[in-house]
């Protein structure tokens, strides 16, 4: 086992008011396993990269994920892709140069409005799409067991 230290901080000045959050000196600590994967891909224009799927990759799950791209890309996370509890697909835009991190692979399947009903599950598929019709996107994904 290893301890991954994750630093998260922001600062902004809006209309003369300074705001900040997080810490550059005190990290969040996440326990991870001894295995990891570093996945790098140049995603062609308007193309989707099937980054990772539980059961078909060396890592069957992850405790921490880090994703960064040099271009705006779409991130798709699928919970319960086999449909045992109810497939849930979540999609986000990852801004160029702004890392996206997940502190675990926990997901919720079969949930209802206001979380009245849900089933704990895991993210079991990661896909990234480059919507740019002109430029390829260089993407790096680090997954820690």
Which features characterize this protein?
five-stranded antiparallel β-sheet, 63% strand, mainly beta, Jelly Rolls, globular
Outline the structure in words.
- The chain has 145 residues and is an all-beta fold.
- It has a single domain (34-144), classed as Jelly Rolls.
- It has strands spanning 2-14, 17-32, 36-43, 47-53, 64-69, 73-79, 88-94, 100-102, 106-109, 119-130, 137-144.
- The strands form 3 sheets. Strands 4, 6, 7, 9 and 10 form a 5-stranded antiparallel β-sheet that branches. A 4-stranded antiparallel β-sheet has the order 3-11-5-8, with no helix packed on it. It has a two-stranded antiparallel ribbon with strand order 1-2.
- A hairpin with an 8-residue loop joins β6 (73-79) and β7.
- The N and C termini lie close together (9 Å).
- 19% of the residues are buried.
Number of domains: 1
Mean pLDDT: 93
Determine the number of helices (DSSP H or I, runs of at least 4 residues). 0
The secondary-structure element order is EEEEEEEEEEE
The percentage of residues in β strands lies in: over 45%
The low-pLDDT segments are none
Structural class: mainly beta
Q: Sheet bearing the most strands, described?
A: 5 strands, antiparallel
β-strand number: 11
